[in-house]
Task: structure prediction
Amino acid sequence: MYALASVVGQLFIYFTITEFDALVLSTVTTTRKIFSTVYSVLRHPSSSLAGTLNPKRCTLNPNVLRHPSSSLAGTVNSKP
Result:
């Protein structure tokens, strides 16, 4: 069943890109994800936002604040 859904999804993507444009496909995909998220929140309101906004579960990872190139500083070789 999942394989059939995957085939239909790939055919939809192929058809949309060939008939229209990649921007249309991007708009359709983003709109679908927005509606899916809203439906999920409305379907399970107690478990959707309440669990993710729990202060005990929200912790700051200090590695997120580091600059991405700081870990690569010692690996870059300079030309002589």
About this structure: Residues 1-45 form one domain. The longest helix spans residues 22-43. The mean pLDDT is 75. The radius of gyration is 21 Å.
